[in-house]
């Protein structure tokens, strides 16, 4: 699975380099739902609370919350990567979701307690054999 993630990250990097703004805008508008055999289902448009994160503690967009369908309460995990492919943070359990069939994961725009540098980051969320990913922008 680690190799698969590296290949995925490389593909995302190639796809985003040089046209970051266009990619982020397109990703925000495009509704793409991925559903796994265990019922895990994530929409990369509506499932992301905000694509721009401003981790300055003013309560506005300080975190990003990923909301997905998880009817069997399967194990779901996720990480944030920088553009060099280095893991920046693990996603943590997010706030209580709107529905009991849903789960959430969250990132506070920080690495080891410190707000990360501004720029483009990649999230990867896994549930069993299903992998979803996309981009986020940290603004400081
Ligand atoms: Ca903020």
Could you describe the largest sheet, including whether it forms a barrel? 5 strands, mixed
The percentage helix is 10-25%
How large is the count of helical segments? 2
Q: Detail the poorly predicted runs.
A: none
The CATH class: Mainly Beta
Got a strand count?
A: 12
User: How would you name the oligomeric state of the polypeptide chains in this document?
Assistant: single chain
Counting helices, strands and paired strands, the structural category is alpha+beta
Corresponding CATH superfamily? Macroglobulin (MG2) domain
| Share in β-strands | 35-45%
Give the key terms.
single chain, 140 residues, Immunoglobulin-like, 5-stranded mixed beta sheet, 3-stranded antiparallel beta sheet, binds calcium ion
Describe the structure.
With 140 residues, the protein is α+β, with helices and mostly antiparallel strands. The protein has one domain (2-138): Macroglobulin (MG2) domain (Immunoglobulin-like, Sandwich). Helices cover 18% and strands 38% of the residues. The protein contains two helices and twelve strands; from the N terminus they run ααββββββββββββ. The strands form four sheets. The chain has a five-stranded mixed sheet. Strand 7 (92-93) and strand 8 form a beta hairpin. The longest helix is centred in the first third of the chain and has 15 residues, at 2-16. Bound molecules: calcium ion. Calcium ion (CA) is lined by residues 54, 56, 58, 60-62.
């Amino acid at each position: 699975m680690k190799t698969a993630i590296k290949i995925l990250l490389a593909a995302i990097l190639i796809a985003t380099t040089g046209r970051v703004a266009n990619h982020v805008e397109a990703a925000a508008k495009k509704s793409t739902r991925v559903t796994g055999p265990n019922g895990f289902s994530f929409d990369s448009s509506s499932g992301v609370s905000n694509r721009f994160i401003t981790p300055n503690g003013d309560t506005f967009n300080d975190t990003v919350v990923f909301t997905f369908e998880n009817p069997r309460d399967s194990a779901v995990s996720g990480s944030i990567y920088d553009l060099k492919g280095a893991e920046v943070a693990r996603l943590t359990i997010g706030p209580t979701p709107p529905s009991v069939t849903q789960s959430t994961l969250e990132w506070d725009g920080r690495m080891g307690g410190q707000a990360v540098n501004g720029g483009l980051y990649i999230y990867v969320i896994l549930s069993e054999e299903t992998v979803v990913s996309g981009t986020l922008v940290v603004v400081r």
